[in-house]
Structure formats: structure tokens, C-alpha cells
Write a structure and sequence with these properties.
A ten-stranded mixed sheet has the order 2-1-3-12-11-4-5-10-8-9, sandwiched between helices. It has a six-stranded antiparallel sheet with strand order 17-16-18-15-19-20, with helices on one face. The protein has a two-stranded antiparallel sheet with strand order 6-7. Helices cover about 30% and strands about 20% of the residues. The longest helix is centred in the first third of the chain and has 17 residues. It is elongated and about 80 Å long. It has about 475 residues and is of the alpha/beta class. It folds into three domains: about 200 residues, Isopropylmalate Dehydrogenase (3-Layer(aba) Sandwich); about 130 residues, Isopropylmalate Dehydrogenase (3-Layer(aba) Sandwich), CATH 3.40.718; about 100 residues, Alpha-Beta Plaits, CATH 3.30.70.1570. The site of nicotinamide-adenine-dinucleotide has 21 residues, from loops.
């Protein structure tokens, strides 16, 4: 079937990016992909021009016009002043699900685990990647972890739909909800709610630490995994590496209107300019892009030629082993080898055959907002005056009948009343004012006025609210 050329936006990226993108595009073209390419520049060169976002305004126009982004890895400058372009693109364009399949190619690519076939669906817009960080006191820095009901619903529904449409058997959710009971707890709860609508799929939950350990030790136990942003980032590298190399895995970033396709690995500065990087991860992403575009025959042809190349022992350095490999090739030679095998099927690895699949459309549920009441406030202070009891003694007089001081914690541990002398305290104190009844913003402002007048340096406040009568805040550790 011939296709009309479809417009896509391409960024050649940093480090090994230009080398692997050139190789991948050459293979896609040779296979007959019908692509009309708009090239944009993002990343290091744009940062160097002083654009702290790493992307020019005109590039957004291209992305919104084509709706399909094929992106090579980008180097994120370390330290302050620059935001990660990868995170910016994913969040700005609403690419809520990051789909990362990992397969092992035993016995052709070295792995301890034949038969890995796991798809990690990573939440892509929230969590600690909100990038809201503050230095609050001399000693303490904060990064906000934001988890939302609509964001969690969308990615979890996507994972179940993906599993259903692709004939998968099981969806596993990874969280740390034994510790983060509200944020990770919400994700787990929504997983159970939505999962109940997919009775044909096995549903399981694992705490991320033991889950990651099992993934590294017995990856074949997993099928589809859905998890929060940071955990998903980490475990997808683990899965790819235990399957053979981070250089092999591609990913799709799915939004309602726009999708982005990229390798899971970074710009590998240690290999840049040497022409030896493995283009397979970006090529896999290209295959996922062709399926998304409906060019399934071309996708099938490219993927099978890639499998045949791996099977024939034509390997780049990252997967080369004297036992399994026949020739150690450069990026370009690898591309030549794949092109030479277009039209061929793998002989031992399972050939793929892509069929058009309807796009997954997910939406968050429409819910009545809960009845919200403010019932207290946490006032955070920078203070270095002495022991917790001394702080309590000085702070108590600032309390009001509506908002008396009830608890002080340091790094989340209750240190007053009845703290332990062993607890290490920094200069960052969370002071809870609450008497159990509803209060107003005016009550809080009055309290803050009194705290400031008493000479305290308050950093921020967090309102303590109930939602339909249920507390929307955690207790102090030891409370
Ligand atoms: P990396 O993934 O670039 O490299 C990790 C290791 O894997 C290195 O030893 C590298 O040589 C190897 N490797 C990676 N891709 C390979 C390939 N295709 N072929 C052979 N070997 C490969 O991770 P890093 O070194 O932590 O990060 C480098 C830069 O990339 C950083 O600036 C980081 O912010 C950025 N990064 C970008 C993306 C992205 O654009 N999506 C993702 C991750 C990291």
C-alpha cells in the first residue's frame, strides 16, 4: 500500500543524536517510509544562544502543525538556569504516557534473561518532574512532588487499554504508597478503580523497591507495568540494560493530539563523534512512529530487518561479545546491514507483524468537587535558636484560639511535644496550628502577622484541609 507523505518534525539532537538520527532516517527512507520532514533545532546549540528553555518559539509551531515528533537525544546542561528540553516538550504538549517496550534478543544479544517482553508505561508529566524546587532555608532544599487525579487516571487507563489492545495478560503497578500514602496512594487507588473495568487482565501492585529488584532479577514475570514518572524513568533503563543495552530500546510519548518518538537513552557524550553508537533504540522509536502514522507494512519491514541484523551477529560495540557477535560495526555500517536485510524475516527471533490499531483516547473522569474546609495551617520556619522545646515556648504565644500550636516536626519527624533528644534537627521547622474546627483565610493571616511580629522567619505555609470531611494532610512521623 502506498501512503501519501506524512509531515513529521525531526530534531537531530546532541552528542550521538545526529549520528543515530542520520542512520535511522536512511533506513526508514530505504524501506519506503513516506515522510515529509520539517527539521528543527533544539538542545545545546539553542541553550548556548541564551534560550534557557532550549527550544525556539518557531519550533513549537512545527510541532503543533505536524503533531508527530521524531527526536534524537538532547544533552541537558547540568545545574541551575536551564530546564530539561525533554521534560518541557513532554509537559507542554501534554504527552501524558511514555510507552517503553523492552525485549531481549537471546541468544543473539547477551542477556541473563531470555524471553523478556515487558512494556513500561510511565506517567510523563507529573511527580518530581514538576521541576518546582526551592531553597527554603540555609540548610534545606525542596522539590515538590505533584500527583493529580486526572493525570493518573489518563496514564493508568492508557496502560490498561494498551494491554487489552495488544493481547497482554497482566498489568503491574509500582508505587511507594507505604510511605507516600497520599500521592502514591492516590495512584494505587486509581489503578484499582480503573483496573476493575478490565476483568480479563491480571492486576497486581508492587512497592517500587522490591518491584525494581524483581524486575532486575526476574524480568520475565512482568508484562505491562504502569508507574509514576521518576520510578518509570529508572526502571525502564534497568529493564533495557538487563535485556542487553540501553541502546536498543525506543519509546513513544503519547498525547491526545501530538506524539513524540525517541530512544530511551541519552546523548551519550562519551561516544559522540566516534560513529560507533547503536542506532537501534532510535530506529525502534521510528518503527513505533510508523505504526502511529498507519504505515504498518513499512514498520513491519524495518523491524524484521533489524531483528535479522541482530540475529546475524552484526553488532555495534555496546552489544558486541566475541561469543554472540560476528562483526563489530559502526553506526553507518549497522544502518547498511539493516537496509541490506529489508524484506527478510528473522529466522529464530519471532518476526513482528504490525496491524493498524485505533488510537487510544483517554480522558479523566468528571467528578463533583469535594466539599473543602480549612481546619488548620502548617507554618514552615527557618530557625536556629536551640532545642525544639525552646522554639515551642517562643512560638506558643503567637497562636490564637482558632489556631493554637499543636505540633512541631523537623524533616517530618515530630520533635514537640514529646520529642526525642536523639532526633537530628536542621534549621527547617514545620509548625502545625490547629484546633480541629474550621478556620478562614483571615484567621491564617492573623496568625502569620503574629508569627512575623514575634520575629520569626516564615518560609511558607500549607493549609490543612478536609475534603468531604476526610483529612487532606499527613500526620507527623511519630504523631
Ligand atoms: P546516556 O543514556 O546518554 O548514556 C548512558 C550509557 O549508555 C553511556 O555509557 C553511553 O555510552 C551508553 N549508551 C547510551 N546510548 C547508547 C547507544 N545508542 N549506543 C551505545 N551506547 C549507548 O545517559 P547519561 O550519560 O546519563 O546522559 C547523557 C546526557 O543525555 C545528559 O545530558 C542527559 O540529561 C541526557 N539525556 C537525554 C535524554 C533524552 O534526550 N531523552 C534521555 C536521557 C538522558
Amino acid at each position: 500500500m502506498t501512503h501519501k507523505a506524512q509531515a513529521i518534525t525531526v530534531a537531530h539532537g546532541d552528542g550521538i543524536g545526529p549520528e543515530i538520527m542520520a542512520a535511522s532516517l536512511r533506513i526508514l527512507r530505504a524501506a519506503g517510509a513516506q515522510l515529509e520532514i520539517e527539521t528543527i533545532e533544539i538542545g545545546e546549540s539553542v541553550y548556548r544562544r541564551g534560550v534557557s528553555s532550549g527550544i525556539e518559539a518557531s519550533s513549537w509551531d512545527s510541532l503543533r502543525r505536524t503533531g508527530v515528533f521524531y527526536k534524537a537525544p538532547i544533552t541537558t546542561p547540568q545545574g541551575g538556569g536551564f530546564k530539561s528540553i525533554n521534560v518541557t516538550v513532554r509537559k507542554t504538549l501534554g504527552l501524558y504516557a511514555n510507552v517503553r517496550p523492552t525485549v531481549s534478543y537471546h541468544p543473539f544479544v547477551h542477556t541473563r534473561f531470555p524471553g523478556i517482553d515487558v512494556v513500561i508505561v510511565r506517567e510523563n508529566e507529573e511527580d518530581l518532574y514538576a521541576g518546582i524546587e526551592h531553597r527554603q532555608t540555609d540548610q534545606v532544599y525542596q522539590c515538590l512532588k505533584l500527583i493529580t487525579r486526572p493525570g493518573s487516571e489518563k496514564v493508568i487507563r492508557y496502560a490498561f487499554e494498551y494491554a487489552r489492545r495488544n493481547g497482554r495478560k497482566k498489568v503491574t503497578c509500582f508505587t511507594k504508597d507505604n510511605i507516600m500514602k497520599m500521592t502514591d496512594g492516590l495512584f494505587h487507588q486509581i489503578f484499582d478503580e480503573i483496573g476493575a473495568e478490565y476483568p480479563e487482565l491480571i492486576r497486581e501492585h508492587r512497592i517500587i523497591d522490591i518491584g525494581a529488584a524483581y524486575l532486575a532479577d526476574r524480568p520475565n514475570d512482568f508484562d505491562v507495568i504502569v508507574t509514576l514518572n521518576l520510578y518509570g524513568d529508572i526502571i525502564s533503563d534497568i529493564a533495557a540494560q538487563v535485556a542487553g543495552s540501553v541502546g536498543l530500546a525506543g519509546s513513544a510519548n503519547i498525547g491526545d493530539r501530538i506524539a513524540m518518538f525517541e530512544a530511551i537513552h541519552g546523548s551519550a557524550p562519551d561516544l559522540a563523534g566516534k560513529g560507533i553508537a547503536n542506532p537501534s533504540g532510535l530506529l525502534h522509536a521510528g518503527v513505533m512512529m510508523l505504526v502511529h502514522l498507519g504505515q504498518c507494512e513499512v514498520a513491519t519491514n524495518v523491524h524484521n530487518a533489524l531483528l535479522r541484523t541482530l540475529e546475524d551477529g552484526v553488532h555495534t560495540g555496546d552489544i558486541f561479545t566475541p561469543e554472540q557477535s560476528k562483526s563489530r560495526v559502526t553506526t553507518e555500517e549497522f544502518a547498511d546491514a539493516v537496509i541490506a536485510r529489508l524484506g527478510q524475516l528473522p529466522q529464530q527471533l519471532t518476526p513482528v507483524h504490525y496491524q493498524p490499531v485505533a488510537a487510544v483516547a483517554t480522558s479523566a473522569s468528571v467528578r463533583q468537587p469535594a466539599k473543602k474546609e480549612i481546619v488548620g495551617v502548617d507554618v514552615f520556619l527557618q530557625w536556629t535558636g536551640g532545642a525544639p522545646a525552646e522554639l515551642a515556648e517562643k512560638l506558643q504565644p503567637t497562636g490564637t484560639p482558632h489556631l493554637p500550636l499543636t505540633m512541631i516536626t523537623n524533616r517530618g519527624v515530630k520533635v514537640w511535644p514529646q520529642g526525642f533528644p536523639e532526633t537530628f534537627c536542621t534549621d527547617h521547622w514545620r509548625c502545625r496550628f490547629q484546633n480541629g474546627a474550621a478556620v478562614s483565610h483571615a484567621d491564617i493571616l492573623q496568625l502569620l502577622e503574629r508569627v512575623a511580629s514575634a520575629g520569626f522567619d516564615f518560609i511558607k505555609t500549607e493549609n490543612l484541609c478536609t475534603f468531604d470531611g476526610k483529612p487532606g494532610y499527613s500526620l507527623g512521623q511519630g504523631q
